[in-house]
């Protein structure tokens, strides 16, 4: 009878340790999940801010301003347009007309 009581006591102690371990692991995982969710919310907020900044940087007026100031670009007019024709020596002269000026 004493042996049975000792075995049952050992089983109860082992199950108590397992219960404590399981609760500890559950709390640890919950904390990690909560941290991950907070980080995901932070990243989502940062992503939204970056999207707003991207839209602000890509407005047509801003792009045109940068093109004219930094790149010295100007609007296309027929007076400054240059036409390029490709000369192919294998084609007859009628197929490769020379541009008139």
Q: Can you describe this structure?
A:
The chain is an all-alpha fold and 101 residues long. Helices cover 65% and strands 0% of the residues. It has 2 helices and no strands. The chain has helices at 2-57, 60-69. The longest helix is centred in the N-terminal third of the chain and has 56 residues, at 2-57. It is elongated and about 115 Å long. The mean pLDDT is 89.
- What letter string, H or E per element, gives the SSE order? HH
Sum up the overall morphology in one term.
Answer: elongated
The quaternary structure here is single chain
Task: Give the helix level as a range of percent.
Answer: 55-70%
Distance from N terminus to C terminus (CA atoms, Å) equals 118 Å
Low-pLDDT stretches are none
Mean pLDDT: 89
Classification by helices and strands: mainly alpha
Secondary structure layout:
Layout lengths: L1 H56 L2 H10 L32
Q: Could you give a short description of this structure?
A:
This protein is an all-alpha fold and 101 residues long. It contains 2 helices and no strands. The protein has helices at 2-57, 60-69.
């Amino acid at each position: 009878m004493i042996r049975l009581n000792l075995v049952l006591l050992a089983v109860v102690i082992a199950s108590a340790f397992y219960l404590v371990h399981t609760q500890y692991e559950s709390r640890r995982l919950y904390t990690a999940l909560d941290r991950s969710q907070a980080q995901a919310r932070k990243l989502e907020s940062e992503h939204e801010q970056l999207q707003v900044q991207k839209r602000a940087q890509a407005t047509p007026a801003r792009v045109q301003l940068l093109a004219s100031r930094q790149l010295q670009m100007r609007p296309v007019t027929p007076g400054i347009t240059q036409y390029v024709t490709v000369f192919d020596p294998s084609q007859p002269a009628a197929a490769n007309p020379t541009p008139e000026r």
